[in-house]
Design brief:
heterodimer, A: mainly alpha, Alpha-Beta Plaits, 2 domains, two-stranded antiparallel ribbon, globular, B: mainly alpha, 2 helices, elongated
């Protein structure tokens, strides 16, 4: 029941964030006032359906702007959402997270990430600092304006949600695609293949938004608690956790996306969701 | 202690949002978001 509820919320959040269906029909993007609103998940604002703006895209935009360099609005928004929800956003509200989970459902051999490769989780913090913050700030043109380096060189979400639909629907855009587009499509294909065999690889190792929200997991209002009077440390939660978290030891791990699998599988009912 | 940190971050978040709106950041993002970002989709 918990799984169905979460899937429904994910689907509704994805449709809600990308509800401008007319854009998919005529190859345009939404340009109304709702685009003043930041959405909590990673969702390219050049997606034909996107109704709001992407926090990571806009963070880079403001950082790379000559006039601003620091985005109070986006940082404030991420702080509020982070304090309230932490990585609950990743597990319940992010459209690309939903896509990765659907891909993982495709029958195939599945890979468990070894302890050595689990250290790759720090890569997302590196990407956040270098590609989202420092490069837009310091790699500037003659007019002192930077550009969104994460969006331009890495983000597969923009390619999947924006680049590919727009290129398919717009003849004029098809004539100007070049190496960067090919590179981004190649990256997207790699992420898709990895998502079929590993659970949420982009969220675990690459996503800078997940990196930001993860910092709030230990203090967020939405959190998990272990009832020590019921927990027998059987390790069943760790076995069921698709992100290899030892939940009974660290229920508010930076990696936890609050999917609830551990709660559903705890035979002693020792794991509780705590809101305040 | 956790509640104090939450409270401070909540207030800080609200202040930052207000500052961002005051500085015109929202309008700047709107101007970008209503046009196709060729860099974001890997075309330009």
């Amino acid at each position: 029941m918990g799984r169905i509820k979460r899937k429904l919320v994910q689907i509704m959040a994805s449709i809600g964030t990308n509800g401008y269906f007319k854009g998919f029909y005529n190859g345009s993007i939404y340009n109304g006032d709702l685009k003043r609103i930041c959405v909590p998940g990673l969702n390219c604002y050049s997606c034909p359906g996107a109704l709001g703006f992407c926090p990571i895209g806009s963070l880079q935009l403001i950082i790379s702007d000559v006039k601003y360099k620091f985005s109070f609005y986006v940082v404030g928004f991420l702080t509020l959402i982070g304090v309230l929800l932490g990585r609950f956003v990743c597990g319940w509200l992010c459209p690309f997270g939903l896509i990765e989970e659907l891909l993982y459902k495709i029958p195939s051999p599945k890979l468990k990430v070894s302890k050595k490769f689990q250290k790759l989780k720090y890569l997302k913090y590196f990407i956040l600092v270098i590609f989202v913050i420092l490069m837009p700030m310091f790699w500037v043109n003659d007019m002192g304006i930077g550009f969104p380096t994460f969006c331009k060189y890495i983000c597969p979400v923009g390619t999947l949600e924006g680049g590919i639909p727009l290129v398919i629907l717009n003849k004029s855009l098809r004539s100007i695609v070049g190496f960067i587009f090919a590179w981004k499509v190649a990256l997207l294909i790699i992420v898709i293949i990895l998502s079929i065999i590993i659970f949420r690889p982009f969220c675990r190792f690459i996503c800078p938004l997940g990196a930001i929200y993860s910092l709030f997991n230990p203090i967020s209002v939405y959190r998990l608690d272990i009832d020590s009077s019921k927990c027998t440390e059987c390790g069943n939660c760790a076995k069921k956790c698709k992100l290899d978290i030892e939940v009974y030891k660290n229920p508010n791990s930076l990696e936890c996306i609050r999917c609830g699998e551990c709660i559903d599988n705890c035979s002693n009912n020792a794991i509780k969701q705590d809101i305040l | 202690m956790r509640n104090k940190i939450r409270g401070i971050m909540f207030i800080l978040g609200g202040i930052f949002i207000g500052l961002g709106v005051y500085r015109g950041e929202v309008e700047r993002v709107l101007m970008k978001a209503i046009n196709i970002c060729l860099e974001c989709v890997g075309i330009g």
